[in-house]
Amino acid sequence: xxxxxxxxxxxxxxxxxxxxxxxxxxxxxxxxxxxxxxxxxxxxxxxxxxxxxxxxxxxxxxxxxxxxxxxxxxxxxxxxxxxxxxxxxxxxxxxxxxxxxxxxxxxxxxxxxxxxxxxxxxxxxxxxxxxxxxxxxxxxxxxxxxxxxxxxxxxxxxxxxxxxxxxxxxxxxxx
Length: 175
Known about the structure:
Layout: E1 2-6, E2 28-32, E3 36-41, E4 45-49, E5 52-56, H1 60-68, E6 80-86, H2 88-101, E7 106-109, E8 116-121, E9 126-134, E10 137-145, H3 159-171, E11 173-174
Parallel strand pairs: 1-5
Antiparallel strand pairs: 1-6, 2-3, 3-11, 4-5, 6-10, 7-8, 8-9, 9-10
């Protein structure tokens, strides 16, 4: 099951990119399904998609809907957080795959935790993958990060994502 939190993305000449952003609510609500539960800001939208559950920030749903309904519908919108549950063998395969995508993958820890974090620069963007174990399953959180001037992925988590990732990591319960 994948969970995606999508943030605002600006596309050149795209009227949808002018939609004003709004801050996540300080109030939270609990999301729960048969596999896990976690807290999310109360003004985030959670949608079931073919990819899994898509968690939209307060402004990204408007951008997403605008792009779906305009000639810019094929533009790159997915700039968000993806949460997956997997067995340890799948996590091992994920890490091997990251090193195949980017042999210079950086291994570190997520700030303030002992969770492993792998930063990889792909052909189109950079991502950080945070891995930690909960109830004998591996939780993987993919976070978009900025690229450094040399093309490597930054180990700095963008502030737009950090508070949401922190909230998910501190409240996630795996069944």
